[in-house]
Amino acid sequence: MKQFNKLLFVCAAGILPALATAKTSEAVQARKMIDKVNQHWQAENKAEVRSFWDNAVYHTGNMEAYFLTGNQDYLNYTTTWAEHNQWKGAKSDNKAEWKYSYGETDEYVLFGDYQICFQTYADLYQIAPDDYKIRRAKEVMEYQMSTPNNDYWWWSDALYMAMPVMTKMYKITGNLKYLDKLYEYITYSDSIMFDKEENLYYRDAKYIYPKHKTVNGKKDFWARGDAWVVAGLAKVLQDMPAEYKHHEFFVNKFRQMAKAVAAIQQPEGYWTRSMIDPEFAPGPETSGTALFMYGIMWGINNGYLDKPTYMPVIEKAWKYLSETAVQKDGTVGYVQPIGEKAIPGQVINAESTANFGVGAFLLAACEYVRYLESSDAAALADRSYWCKLAYDMAAPVLSNMAKGELQKNMILEVSPTWDGRNKKVAYMETFGRLMAGIAPWLTLPDDDSEEGKMRKQLREWALASYKNAVDPQSPDYLLWRKEGQTLVDAAYVAESFLRAYDALWMPLDETTKKRYVEEFQQLRRIDPPYTNWLLFSSTIESFLAKAGAQFDEYRINSTIRKVEEWYTGDGWYSDGPTFAFDYYSSYVFHPMYLETLQAMKDAKVRSRIDYAKYYDRALVRAQKYSLILERFISPEGTFPVFGRSIPYRMATMQPLALMAWYQKLPAGVSNAQVRCALTAVMKRMFATGHNFNEGGFLTIGFTGKQPNIADWYTNNGSLYMTTLSFLPLGLPASHPFWTDAAQEWTSVKAWNEKPFPKDHAWKDQIRTWDLF
């Protein structure tokens, strides 16, 4: 294993001189500025103020600062504000008087400026789920959606105030109507105030060109108005599922607006109040600039915008914000007062500040820190540790298999009670299970970081290994044509393709693809046992459907029906007709059931089964089960050791890792909680280094070499199931999963006399019937 240590050390140590860059220093300074600005604001302003838009915008920034820094004072400040407002916006309970024209009194319940508070209430609900926090939000938004009206968002600000409320409430409730109405409402907004030539919004219908012009006869796009939209689109895309039917509409709009906005940035880094007529109202303006920076920076961090194109925009904007807008005492200056347009002659200076301007700055600064720290192994110590461990497991396998030497060089181990089957099954187990675990990581784009170099190397080895796996002339041609066990691990190979379709399946040459299709199809010779094995067949067949090959619909649909029969409730599946208390709900049921259903959705197969509704129901079950797994993790980083196949180690945590990767964690379980909990388990399990044999391959055991716990089918290739806990590596290093401040997981809170969310039974709410 020494041959890999040099590259591993780069990620593990996190202290190489190359990492001690100006970028690291800038992140430290940016964090200090965030705290200075926010602490100054909170010291000067009480939390007990109304829930109208200006205050609510501040709290969207304050919550982001809390997630990034973990400062409990920030959370307490926002909680006090929410409690002061009784978790409401406008407070009227008489629906007959509810309005959505402009107004600041309690009957303007449907006015977006009184709905933005629901964004923060939803965030607080996700931290500690209590129904009272979102009860009013559900009442208001679901009443609004029940009306035939679609003209609720008649001014551009609403696309920040109210649009993200819809996606946050969708995320909590799973009610697709939130997304459909979101699309309906923004379509109306576009019809009255969107300029398709400029890809920018007028503040509202009063400002449409040529009816309204600047004094110089130009179109008048108000910076803060368009900035609300760009920032709102970023927030929407953060919570909108990629498979939603109108997702591409929002992606395209976001990209088009970002391009238009970037083109009219001033050389000093800010945007003037009238964006394409700087002379109309010249000089800097902070709130619009900060919101633009936040939206564009989020787009870069999450892969929607091209880094080389847009980072110069970010760097100029940050230079303005950090050197001009923020004053020595922490005041955020040059904020245009509340209004709706660029006003010639209006004085805006270093003393011009506002709550919403502070919130906008916090959003931009926090997103910038996530970017700065994303390539800093020291700042992201948990991710660095995961990278090291993943590479440690993968490199000996893939470096050998890429050369056709895995079967020659792997130091093979089998159970003391081995059942006598062909030992070559171990090589497919090793490869398939490893790739299913690291596939999401390999989907990330190449970069020049040390992690990026490792990832690129693994992907190159993996693609060569995939080719060798089905090439009859290769010494590493796998055991496709013998033994029933082949069905199991062919399913993990198929699962790796499903998890990284564009990165691992699409680059394969046509001959190799054809060979995989043939190998997968010939596995129909195997009659799977009446257990979780049915899902191995469905995973393979659903992949064939997604890939456009001939597939067996009956094998898929009969598996789905059986899995439904075997659901026992509260997130648990029975492995066949008889319940077994083990982790097969982790190893197979939740992941492969969801992936089977998703692949059938992707393939747009129409059959008797409503795959979309089945998927939604299965997802809720997986969320419940992942919540249980998170609670299983003790304060010491251990979890209960029981059941067969326990040498699969960290594979027990696969559904929790899967929900984190999908960004579908249940309320009460945060990104940071899961990261910290899984890291604690990994370190507890792998700290001694005794999990590997002298060739660098996993050895049979749980926390070391413990061959006595092997089952009759166990070999050390089986153990690469443990990589299934690495799925969150598919989230970029700038993602909040990695950059949010460390948080205690549930058992740590519970065993240390701290508040923690109570658990409760979950029941299926989604009912399905055959489509025909």
From TrEMBL:
Keywords: Hydrolase, Signal. Residues 382-745 form the DUF2264 domain. InterPro entries: 6-hairpin_glycosidase_sf, 6hp_glycosidase-like_sf, DUF2264_N, Glyco_hydro_88, UCP014753. Gene3D superfamilies: 1.50.10.10. It holds the Pfam family DUF2264. Residues 1-22 form the signal peptide. The keyword Hydrolase applies. This is DUF2264 domain-containing protein.
